[in-house]
Amino acid sequence: MPAIMVSANGAGLFAHGIDVGTSTANAGLMTGGIFNSGSLTATGTNGATGVGISVISAVGGGITNTGTLMGSTAAIDLTQEVGGSTNIIQAGGTMTGNILGSGHDTLSITGGSLVLAPTGVVNGLASFNMLPAGVLALQVTPTQAPVITVNGIATLSGGSVQVQPQPGTYALQTRYTILTAANGVLGQFANATTTSAFLGATLTYDANDVFLTLSKAGIFSTQATTANQRNVAAALDVSSFNSALVLAALTQTVPGAQQAFDALSGELHASIHTTLLNDSLFAREAVLGRLRQVSFGGVSGPLGLLGAGGPQVASAQTGGTSVQAANVGVPGALAGSDVVGSKLAYAQTADAYQPAAYALADVGGPAFPTQAAPAPVWTPDWTWWSQGVGAWGRFDGDGNAAETRDRLAGFFTGVDRRFGDHWRAGIASGYSNSRVSVDARASTANIDTAHFAAYAGGNWGGLDFRSGGAFAWNTIGANRAVVFPGFADADTTRYEASTDQIFGEVARAGAFGNVAVEPFLGLAYMHLHTDGFTESGGPTGLAGAATDQGVGDLSLGARLATSLAGPNGTVLVPATTVFWQHAIGSVIPSQALTFVSTAAPFTVAGAPLARNAGVVDAGLDVWPNPRARIGLSYFGELAQRVQDHAVKGNFTLSLSP
Prior knowledge:
The protein is mainly β. It is 9% helix and 52% strand. Strands 1, 3, 4, 6, 7, 9, 10, 12, 14, 16, 18, 19, 21 and 22 form a 14-stranded mixed β-sheet that branches. A twelve-stranded antiparallel barrel has the order 25-26-27-28-29-30-32-36-38-41-42-43.
């Protein structure tokens, strides 16, 4: 019979492979050979045996593989061979599966790899030869390894043994027999390696056997590349060897181990600190936006344009007439998006009754009719205000912590009253919801927050002073999926936090022709406290310690506004706020954690806040008449690793007569 060729261009996925001969009655010596340089895989489906090459007639030309040969039951089955013996040569590529000989056959690994499963066998061989370029790949479990059994002599002229540990509970040392030769073992393998970063393989010999010993060969932290990974790895190094966490990490490759360290880190809890501190901006800006309305409400000329923006308000004069404003708006990132009619804001002059749009005629704007101020001057004692907020942001990873994303929505409302001729004070409250995600760590959190604030502002010596303090109660629900090769777990927890802050701003406004400018300097200090917590889940669950962190913000910038004449008597009011924001103190949050299952502690860092950021808030208001305003603006915080973006819209209509 001539040779059977499976060419390099050939590929097959079969229930059964190649049969040589159909019965022992017709069997004889096959003078040709079987050569596979393609891909031959026998799946064993549809009731077939799953044998790659099955031989009844002995193959005088041998069976040579340089491609891919695999059988779910056996790669090669010679058990029913008659008429001689067959020389099996694994010369290149990969052969996967049992090799079952007739007792007369020879196996030589001259190149490529022979891969055997934990239950795999190679038997029925008269001899076995291992050459320097060959690789014997053995998949092992904590209790089982494949065995090569030779009826004659095993000759080892080098070559490698590659051990592929499968997931399981390994002892500190495990010994396996991997080769037995009845007539003796001659020579040795060149070396033994493992695919695990933490299990080492050694080979020992006696006259007839080769033994493999697996043992813990290194410490986890040697394979970590980031600070968070090193801290987690160090905790695993001091954990019990038989703990589920250590055993799951033990069989990992180097990339798999690094994935495991990241997944186990609980980094989400530290990055939650980042979002809570950053989100304190919204309550602060809501209060400062209201105080800026107080500063410029009713002021005529271009300075009055600086009062654009801020919350929707309604005012009442004690013993006098109430005035209301109706508003429909799109929440903005700073939610101070609703522009207020100047009648609704406090001022000390008769111009408080005169909307700024009316006074534009003083600076060359459209000639709206100027309404005479009544007597006495209308100055509201009480003002109620409200506003919505919506934002989305991203904190880029720093090579240690992963990228964190945050989406927030909520509202703020408050009431304030006049004190004397130059000051106003009030209180505010609100609610917000944040959704935090760290996709690279398969982690999410939902944060519900209740807000309370007190504030005061006024004018003295030509300077405007604005100040306040705010407190927030945070309820955090966190979820983590811990997934790495061969392992999966899930953990959840719920805990409380609080964020308090004090802040202030000093500014002085001036006009340059038809352009109003207000340079300002602001300071804020935020303090975050988180309660301790314990996750529920599997062996990867963490306990977190209570934490405290504080950071300050310095803001330096300017606001600009002007007015332009539009068609049909419309007034256009472009306004821009640009400032530099600098964080004072540590911008990298941290969380002390402990593996509940092993009591091993470690500390993890989260995504950092921006040390320096440029902030811009630019928009355009359209005043079709003195009682209505429509506006659209963009807000952005731009830093090297932090970005916040928002679009704000507003519509305000004064309903006063």
